[in-house]
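Running co-folding for D-xylitol-5-phosphate.
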Amino acid sequence: MAKVAPSVLAADFSRLADEIKKTEVAGVDLLHLDIMDGHFVPNISFGPSIVKTIDRLTGLFLDVHLMLSNPEGYFEPFIKAGADSITFHLEARPNPIELAARLKETGVEAGISINPDTDPAKVLPFLEHFDLLLVMSVFPGFGGQSFIESALDSVSAARNHIDQHGLATKIAIDGGVDGDNAARIVAAGADILVMGTAFFRNEDQKTLTQKTQALRR
Ligand code: DX5
Ligand code: ZN
């Protein structure tokens, strides 16, 4: 059963409480919160105070995706704000094992993300240290981009590694995911589908959520 993680970046922030409530009504599994620093990616989004606001609005699990050049400098404020899982990029920290341990010591889950042009072989040796691999299917920085098909190869490579080694690491995919490509993504081996635009622009979020959750490998 696949999990649905709406990316709040695509929500209408003038009605944030309503938008979060609607994700709960739709029955989503968790929320994905995109943090951008204007340096690792060419855009700026929001910081810990908005994460804290969202944490007060919902009991849903909060997966915080740090698109930051200096991720560990912000672990503490986002954990205090209510993050349940923190994901940072391999491109920012090519030796991520110690940071995974640091996150887990504080009681949050640890995630590692790779961009679409990063060879998945580079992240495989680290997966045993992480709860989550976040495969980017767009170049990070903006919502509403088109899905990059080659990300499916990264998902398959990670799936094979995880299964062969009996790891518990979950695979999430992020960027351009919608009701049309969801089945192929799950078939390639993803456990969690991040959906921004496709979720928040959908008139029938409950059906989209249920159809996605019903997908199996
Ligand atoms: C991209 C972000 C994604 C993005 C997803 O930088 O990490 O989470 O907002 O949005 P959609 O689904 O619109 O591509
Ligand atoms: Zn993201």
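Result summary
Strands lie at 3-6, 30-36, 61-67, 85-89, 109-114, 132-136, 170-174, 192-195.
The two ends are 8 Å apart (CA to CA).
Job closed.
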